[in-house]
C-alpha cells in the first residue's frame, strides 16, 4: 500500500466536457503543441515555460486562435500582459502574418479548467505548419518568471485548445497531455502524529514527517531521529532513520499495556524537533479514530490522482479513515467505477478504513451541499444534475433536490450516511431533513468555521452530530493547508469514538453521533453525563434525571487550553479557563474573526495596524497565519501591521509587552478598538464589525504556556419543554479549536 504514483490524472477520468461539435475527426485539423521545459520545478519558485503550437491542416482563420487552460484550484501567480519586467508576464508571437492579442481570466473557464489564457489571431490568417509561441513567465525583458503554486503535484496540466475556424468553439487537442511536475520545497517543520485514545494492548502507530513552509511533505537529509516516550510503549524503537529519499516514516504496531497517558518527544542530536500526543490509554468501550471524510482529487475539481489522494491520507497524513467526495455533476461513470475499485483495494480493517462516496452538489435553493458516504462499494451515484456529464444513460438516477435524494436513498436501502456542509454552496438545512440518513453537520473545513450550521440545526429541532473535514482540493486529506488561494483555514478532522476501526463500527459511531470535530489538531476530548437510565456520552439522546444535570468534561491537547465553553444549544452556560486573574501577565492577544456572509463570497479581508502607546513589544507569536506571504510584521518597538483573510474562523497575534501601562489600539479597514492593557482581565473586549460574526477581540493571557489538560464537572440547568443540546467548544492556545457532538437531553 505504499506504492508511488508518478503520473498526473488521466484525462479520460476527469469530469469535463468539450464542445459537442468539432471541425472534423482527423486530429491533424486541430494542430499540435509542445511544452518546454518539463523538468520538475519547486513550489513557490519563479519559472519560465514555452508552449509552441503548430497550426493544423485547416490553418487558423482571422479571429480564430488557441486557448491554454489550467486547473481553477491553482494558486500560482496571476498572469499579466502589460509589464514585461514584472512577475508572471506572458507573451505570444507567431511566424505568420497579422498580429496576436492575449486575454487572461483566473476564473471564467469551464471547471476544472477555470484559469484560461486565450491567444487570438487578427489581421490575417495562419497557414498549416506555422507556429504560435507562448512564453509563460517570459524573462527576456526583466520578468523574474512565473510564480509556481504552493502545493506539490505529479503534474501541473496545461490544456491546449484550438478554434481554427473562428467559431468560438475551442476544442482540446486530442491525445495530448502537457504537464510539469511540481515538487516540495526545502524542509521547514518536523511533525509527529499519533492516536489520541486507545485501550490497553490495542495497536497504534507513530507517524513522522517533515514539511516545507507550505505544508507539503518533503525529503529531509539523511538522519537518525531519536524517539522518547513518557511511559513504556511496546514495539517502540529507540531511533528511526530517514535515508535521504523518504518523506515519511511510520512506526506500526505500538501498544501500551496499562492505562495512562503517553507523549512522544522526537530529537536529532539532542535538539527536540517535534512532539506527539498525549495519547490516552483507557479501558473504555471505544477508542478514537481520526478521519477526513471530505475532499476531492483531480478527477473532479481538485488535483492529483485518486490513488495519490488515498496514499496521502494513509501514509502522509497518518489518518485512520478517509472518504473521497467529488462534485457529483462532474463524476464520470468511468471515474465512479474506478473510485469504487480504489476504496475496495485500500480498505484495511483494523488499520485504515476507506469509504466510497460523493458530494451531492445541488444548489442551495434546492438543498445545497451534502456528503453522501456509503458503507460499501457498488452503490448508485445519484447526481444533482448532469451539468458536466455528456453521457445520458443514467439520468434516471438523478436526484435534483435534497428531498429527491432522501427519497431515493430510503427506497434503495443502500447503507448510507449524509453530512450537511458549507463549501462553495452551503447546505440549506431549512428545506428538509431525514434524521435516519443525515447524522451530522460539518462546522469546519478549509472553507472556514461555520458554527451557525449547528445552532440553526438546534433551532430547527434537529439532533445532529458535529464533524469537521478538510473539503480540500489540493490532494492532501488529513493535512490540508490553504496555500495562497481563497481558502482561509487549515482543514478539519473528526475523531470517531468506535469499538474498532472498521466500516461497520465507524458507521455505528456516525449514526450514534459518537464523534467530535477539530480544526486539524488531534486532541483527546471526553464529555459524559448521567441520563435517566444511566451514563451517556456525546451524541446520545436521553431524558435528564433532574432539572440540573452534572456534565463531566476532560480534555488533553498538544497545546495549552485557553478556554472551554460549556454550551446548551446556542447559549454559553459557562466559560472555564486554565487560569484566573492572578495568573495574568504581560501577554495581550488580538484576534480578528468572522465572514462576510454564508455564501461563496464569504472571505473577509482584514488590513490593519496594531499600535502600542506607552510600552515596547518584546516578542510576538502569530495565530492561524496559514499563508506566510501575507503581511504580519513588527515595525519598530510598538507597532505591528497585518493583512489576513478569515472565512468564519479566526486569526490573530500575541504580543508580550514590557509594561501594562500602555494603550493597545487596533485600526483596521472594518473597525477600530482601543483598550488600556492594565484594565484587561480574563473577559475579552469585543468590537462587532458587522457581516457574519465579524469581530475584533482583545484579551490578556498569562506570560507562560497554558496547561494542556483541563477536567471539570458542572451542573447544566435544563430548559423545560425543549431539547437541551449540551456540548462544548475548546479553544487552544495555538489557535486550534474542537467541538463535541451534543448530548441531547429531552426535557
Task: Write up what this structure looks like.
- The chain has about 750 residues and is mainly beta.
- The protein has 5 domains: about 10-180, Immunoglobulin-like (Sandwich), CATH 2.60.40; about 190-280, Sandwich (Immunoglobulin-like), CATH 2.60.40.10; about 285-520, Metal-dependent hydrolases (TIM Barrel); about 525-580 and about 710-745, Sandwich (Immunoglobulin-like); about 580-700, Immunoglobulin-like, CATH 2.60.40.
- The protein is built from 5 helices and 53 strands.
- The strands form 10 sheets. Strands 23, 24, 25, 32, 33, 36, 38, 39, 51, 52 and 53 form an 11-stranded mixed beta sheet that branches. Strands 2, 5, 7, 8, 11, 12 and 13 form a 7-stranded mixed beta sheet that branches. Strands 26, 27, 28, 29, 30 and 31 form a 6-stranded mixed beta sheet that branches.
- A hairpin with a 3-residue loop joins strand 48 (about 685-690) and strand 49.
- The radius of gyration is 27 Å and the shape is globular.
- The two termini are about 50 Å apart.
- Residues about 1-5 have low confidence and may be disordered.
